[in-house]
Specification:
Number of strands: 2
Shape: globular
Helix content: over 70%
InterPro entries: ABC_transp_permease
Radius of gyration: 23 Å
Subcellular location: Cell membrane
Low-confidence stretches: none
Largest sheet: 2 strands, antiparallel
GO molecular function: transmembrane transporter activity
Organism: Glycomyces artemisiae
Number of helices: 13
Strand content: under 5%
Protein name: ABC transporter permease
CATH architecture: Orthogonal Bundle
Structural class: mainly alpha
Mean pLDDT: 87
CATH class: Mainly Alpha
CATH topology: ABC transporter involved in vitamin B12 uptake, BtuC
Length: about 350
């Protein structure tokens, strides 16, 4: 007897009996997929806390405060990289923006222009660069990767011209340094800034029309255009937002570093992009998201910190960040395709 000869009421009863079990299995699978990176982060942290080579230093309050505080700047820059990435655009200038912002902020502080004005100068630099990126990409129709790579190269020249390769560390106000290195209730002050920025970006991306437009554009530019979304405006605002967040990171870097190193921006781009891409493998698999970005930042940070304390050579961090970017891109593509295939079936 095949299913076609079984009364409809019987088959419906069988399906309804199987459905809850299938939903539970799917739900468990999605939960594991969403929080696997979180679990791996916890497992690695526990490993370094008990491993004899690192147990004496990794779990110390001082090390944890340094680890968390050091990630605030790169975390904010990664959130900047995340925004255009949602629309399938790459901003390769974010590290350079943070670097040039740090230099001009530190220079203004060193010249005695005051904390507020110096910060505004830095953020203004980021805004100006973001507007240039947005106009070239959306009006001149130059590819985003080429545009931001070119801008990053120009900014490298600007930094070298302004500093002659010498770090700016003189006459930085103590209040700035105290904030960058200080704690509030045991939590690094810069980490609290990261939390505030992450919540703001999360709200904008998940609870405003512009955020929904950005995700729609990333899913299908042609469909987004058909429903009336102004793709050029959405993309332009994304690049401006990315530069603004990178500029905020640059200003905070001055506080953290008590000045500005002309080479600092170079080291920001790859880790920020790696974290943004890895976000698609955590919290909301197949979808670039704020929570996943923060998890990825601390996953890489804990791994690098633990290996450093174990005496592993510094160049290993370059291997890890590069591998993370490749894995992140691969996972994002794979999970995105699977999510697309499952969507018509309610997945």
């Amino acid at each position: 007897m095949n299913e076609s000869t079984i009364p409809a009421a019987v088959t419906d009863e069988r399906r309804s009996a199987v459905a809850p079990e299938r939903r539970r299995t799917i739900g468990a699978g999605r939960f594991i997929e969403a929080y696997a990176l979180v679990g791996l982060l916890v497992a690695i942290a526990i490993f370094f806390a008990v491993w004899p080579k690192t147990s004496g230093s990794f779990a110390s309050v001082a090390n944890l405060q340094i680890l968390v505080g050091n990630q605030a700047v790169i975390g904010i820059i990664a959130l900047g990289a995340l925004i255009p990435l949602i629309a399938n655009e790459w901003d390769l200038s974010i590290g350079a923006v943070a670097g040039v912002t740090a230099v001009f902020t530190a220079a203004a502080l060193s010249a005695g222009h005051g904390i507020a004005l110096s910060a505004l100068i830095g953020v203004g630099c980021g805004l100006a660069i973001g507007l240039v990126n947005a106009l070239v990409i959306t009006r001149a129709r130059v590819n985003g990767v080429i545009t931001t790579l070119g801008v990053a190269t120009i900014l490298e020249g600007v930094v070298n011209q302004r500093t002659n390769g010498v770090a700016i560390t003189t006459d930085i106000p103590d209040a700035v340094v105290d904030f960058g290195l200080g704690t509030t209730a045991g939590v690094p002050s810069l980490a609290l800034v990261l939390i505030a920025v992450a919540l703001l970006v999360y709200y904008v991306l998940d609870h405003t029309p512009w955020g929904r437009y950005l995700y729609a554009l990333g899913s299908s530019p042609s469909a987004a255009r058909l429903v009336g979304i102004r793709n050029g405006v959405v993309v332009g605002v994304a690049f401006v937002s990315a530069s603004l967040l990178a500029a905020v990171g640059g200003v905070l870097q001055v506080a953290r570093q008590a000045g500005a190193d002309p080479r600092v921006g170079v080291g920001f781009t790859l880790p920020a992009l790696a974290a943004a891409f890895l976000s698609a493998a955590s919290v909301k698999p197949g979808k670039y998201n704020v929570g996943g970005t923060i998890v990825a930042i601390f996953f890489l940070a804990v791994l690098n910190n633990g290996l450093s304390l174990a005496g592993v050579p510094a160049y290993v961090s370059s291997y890890l960040n590069g591998a993370a970017l490749v894995v992140g891109v691969g996972l994002a593509v794979w999970l995105g395709r699977r999510r697309t295939r499952q969507a018509p079936h309610g997945g």
